[in-house]
C-alpha cells in the first residue's frame, strides 16, 4: 500500500499534474540548447564590428560558430556518466550554472579568445542539457504519456531556435550582439531556481538504494495507485543489473547502442542544421532579398515549432516508428524536389518558390519524425544502470556529426553545388529509412522496465534478429 501525503499541489486526485510542471521546467534545458545554437547566426553579423579579427579570418569565424558544438560534444562525452554518478537533478543544476556563466562570458567578452572560450563553456552546458533533459523527463513520466512529455524537450529546442531568430531580428537594428548572446542568462536562471525545487528521478534514486525518497517522489508525480508496483518493477530490473561503465559494452546492449548511434548520425547527416544554421544563405540563393530571407527564416522556425507540437500530440497515439518513417519519407521527397529546383535553370522565378516551399516542408517532416523521435528513443531503449552513459554515447555521436556537417556544408555548397548537396542528403535519408525499417524498435506504451526486460530476453534468444523484428508489435 502506498502512503499518501495529501494536500496542496502534491495531494488530491490531481497529484499527477505536478509531473507536467516538472517536465516543463526540465524542458528549459531544451530551450537553452535551441537558443544557444540558434543565436550565433544573427550575432555573427555584428561581432565583427567589435572584433575585426573575425571579419579578417574565416577560420576564426568558423571557430566562434563551432566552439559551441565542440563544447557540446565534450559535455555530452562526460555528461552521461555524470548523470549516472551525480544524479539527474544535480546535473541539471550544474548545467544551469554553466549556461549562466557561459552566456555572461559571451556578453562581456573583451577579445575573440575570451568569446571563443565562453562559447565552448556554454557548449559544455548544451552537451549536458542535451542528455539530461530527455533522460530526466523519461524517468519521471508515466509510460502512457512518456512520448509527449519527453518531446516537450524537442518542442523547447525548436522554441529556443525560434526565440533566438526573433531576438536576433529585434536587436539587429542596434547591432546589439552582446544582448543577443547574453539573453540566455534569463532562462538559465529560471532553470536553476525552478529545478532546485523539483524532485530527483525516482529511477535514479532506486538505483542508489534510496527507496524512501523514490517513493515520496513518485507520490508527488503520480496518483496514489501504482506507486508500490512501480518501485517494485524498478527494483526487480535493478537487481538484474551489474554496476560499472563496462556494462554498456555488453553484447545484449549492443543492438540498442547501434540504434542510438545510427539515429544520431542520420539525424545530422540528412541535413537539418544546414537549414537551421544557414537558412538565410540558402534562401538568398533562391532569389530572395536579405530582409525577405530573414523573415522566411522566422517562418521556418514557426513551422519547426508547430510541427513539433503535432508530433507531441501523436507520438503516444500513433507510435514512434510510423512517425519516424513518415517523416523520413517526406524529407526524402522534399530533398529530391529541392535538388531538382536548384538543378534546373531559372531559380529566380517559379522554381524559387518551389525551392522555398520544399525547404519548409522538409523542416516540417523533420519536426514530426527524426527531430523528436531520436531524443525520445535514446531516453527509452537503454537499461537503467547505464542509461546516462549510453545516452551519452548517442549524444556525442550526434554532436560530432553535427560538427562535421556544419563544417562541410558551406564547402559542399560552393564546390559540388546546391543540387548535388541536397541530393546527397536525399541519398542519406534513404539510408535512414532502411535503417529505421530494419532496426528501430517501437516503444509506445511500455514502461522503461518492460523495454529493458524485452532487450534482455531477446538478447539471449536469436542473436541474428534485428531489434525491429524483436520489437513487440506497436499496438499490442
Ligand atoms: C537536433 C538539432 C536541431 C534541432 C532542430 C534537434 O533534434 O538535435 O541538431 O538543430 O532538432 O529542430
How are the elements arranged and paired?
Layout lengths: L17 H9 L1 H23 L1 H5 L1 H29 L1 H20 L4 H29 L5 H26 L5 H6 L2 H12 L5 H6 L3 H11 L5 H14 L13 H16 L2 H14 L4 H29 L1 H24 L6 H19 L1 H9 L8 H29 L1 H23 L8 H13 L6 H4 L6
Helix pairs in contact: 1-6, 1-7, 2-4, 2-6, 2-7, 2-9, 4-5, 4-6, 4-19, 5-6, 5-9, 6-7, 6-19, 7-15, 7-18, 13-18, 13-19, 13-20, 14-15, 15-16, 15-17, 16-17, 16-20, 17-18, 19-20
Beta-D-glucopyranose binds next to α7, α14 and α18.
- Please report the total strand number as a whole number: 0
Structural class: mainly alpha
Number of helical segments with 4 or more residues: 22
N- to C-terminal distance: 29 Å
Number of domains: 1
Question: What are the segments in which pLDDT stays under 50 over at least 5 consecutive residues?
Answer: 1-15, 462-466, 469-476
What's the CATH class label?
Answer: Mainly Alpha
Strand content: under 5%
Instruction: Name the CATH superfamily classification.
Output: MFS general substrate transporter like domains
Mean pLDDT comes to 87
Radius of gyration: 22 Å
